[in-house]
Amino acid sequence: MKYFVGFFGGIVSILMAIIPLTILWTLLTGTTLFGMDIIGNFMAMINAIGNAGFAGLLTLLLVMYFFLDGRCCSK
């Protein structure tokens, strides 16, 4: 189990490093990098969460929990 957690944790770390590069590339050149339109996808996600009302708020809190890795609740 530790192997899988480490493997997927590594993949997520790589993707989290690529996201700022693709945003910068899109802002500087106006084209997408690797076919990923990060800004468009992010705006669509925010609009979908905003239109979902209370369910969208719960989804946003859940996503924030995963990105924070539960650090807000454990001391």
Largest sheet: none
Topology, number of strands: 0
Low-confidence stretches: none
Class from helix and strand fractions: mainly alpha
End-to-end distance: 25 Å
Helix content: over 70%
Radius of gyration: 15 Å
Strand portion: under 5%
Number of helices: 3
Number of domains: 2
Principal-axis shape equals flat
Overall mean confidence score, pLDDT: 80
What is the chain-wise order of helices and strands?
HHH
What does this structure look like?
With 75 residues, the protein is mainly alpha-helical. The chain folds into 2 domains: 1-36, no CATH class; 37-75, no CATH class. The chain is 76% helix and 0% strand. It is built from 3 helices and no strands. It has helices spanning 2-29, 38-51, 54-68. The longest helix has 28 residues, at 2-29. The two termini are 25 Å apart. 0% of the residues are buried.
Topology of this structure?
Blueprint: H1 2-29, H2 38-51, H3 54-68
Brief synopsis:
By secondary structure, this protein is mostly helical. It is built from 3 helices and no strands. The chain folds into 2 domains: 1-36, no CATH class; 37-75, no CATH class.
Keywords:
75 residues; 2 domains; 3 helices; single chain; mainly alpha
